[in-house]
Every structure is written in structure tokens, then in C-alpha cells.
Amino acid sequence: MEKQKAHIDKNNTVIKVRGLEKSFADYDVLRGIDLDLYQGENLVVLGRSGTGKSVLIKLISGLLKPDAGSIEVLGNDVTAISERELQELRIRIGFSFQNSALYDSMTVRKNLEFPLVRNRKGITRDEINKNVESVLDAVGLSHTINQMPSELSGGQRKRIGIARTLILNPEIMLYDEPTAGLDPITCIEINDLINEVQANYKTSSIIITHDLTCAKHTGDRIAMLLEGQFQRVGTFDEVFATDDNRVKPFYDYNFTE
Questions:
Q1: What is the C-alpha to C-alpha distance for residues 78 and 93, in angstroms, rounded to an integer?
Q2: Which of 36, 51, 166, 209 could staple 47 via S-S, CB 3.0–4.6 A?
């Protein structure tokens, strides 16, 4: 499915990162990066494995603390707010984990109900049912409602993981390697779903990937992370219009003529 042109408000920055640094022991993972995510935008952070892509979204969501720099999410300084305020902020952020993070002992229905019951005090059974049915319909898996995660394919598990994130109507989506381990056809389906979420839920998203097909089909803008810094930022074609030996082999490996 061809990606529709998104409505992006560049006057509304929902995530602002400045001078961000993070090291582990003697290894400098992020070396002073700047990043803006605009309202309504799908921003792909692209890079090889081990370059700090997943570290970046863990910092943004407050799961890790930076060594230096600032992180502002929906007007909140993530490094300065209290734990209670951070928990409230995280409700507004959907985190789609690489492994889908479903509870294997719960049915699909119970997996989807869990965040609602935990975060929406006083919600009625009727409201829970409507929300569950709505997000399952959105990801095209209404028929799996009573199944166990073990009965689902990898692609279905990924979709249910996204549905569980969507059930709280997040303003921001953080996708960590959404197509990892999936076959090419299922990858296309997940890419299309990411674009549908952007269009239908009006989300702003950061998509962490080393999959260039995912980047090309979901990203309104690409930020290429190399050696701890964003070396190239722009559209897909702009990022790869280079003879840079750190970039060109990455493209050639994914898109050989």
C-alpha cells in the first residue's frame, strides 16, 4: 500500500532532544545528538545493530537516564519530572516492543484489557469491551479475541502488541524494530499498519529499525545514526543520495540492483 502524505505540524514539536549523551562503561553509544519529532510525523531512526537506536527510545521514555543533554516529551522534561509524573506521561506514549511483550498466560482479550483496567479507574465492562473490539478491528484481528498468544503467528503477535498499545489512545508511538524476525509479506503488512495507525489515530511516531524497506515505506523523515550521532537527516532519497562509505553499503545490501 502506498503511503499517504501525512499532515505534519512543524510548529508543534512533541519530542525535543538536545545534546543527548549516553555511555556504558567505556563505550560511548550516543555522542551529543539533537532530534525533533513533529506532530503527526513518522520519524525513522535508522542504523546498524548496536548503534544505540533502542537506547535512544529508552531514554525518551525514561527507562534509562542520560549522561548529558535534555529530553522534552509533550512539554515535559523527562530528566527532571517525578516518578509519578513520568508514569502519567508514559500513558500518553505507546511503546511497541520488539518481542510484542504479551502475557503468555492471558488470552488476547485479557492482554488488551490489562492496560485499560490498570490505567482507567472506574471504566465499565461495556467500555472495556468496546475498546477491545475497536483496537482488534483496527489491526484486523477481531477473530483472535479468545486465542492465546502461543496460538498466534509472529506477525499476529506483533499486531496484538500494537493493539494493546493503541487501546490507551497514545499521542506518541515508539516502535522498536517492528519488522524484526518477520517474513517479507508480513513485514509489508506491519508497515501498512504503522501508516494506518498514523492516519487513523493521529499519532506522532519514532520507528527504530535497520530494515530499509520499513524505513522507506513508513518514514516521513529518516535520521541515520552512525558512530553515536545523526550523520544524515531528511527524506529517504535525501539520506541515501551520497557516496559516504558508511551509508552506501547499507543501502546496497538492502536494495541490490
A1: 12
A2: 51
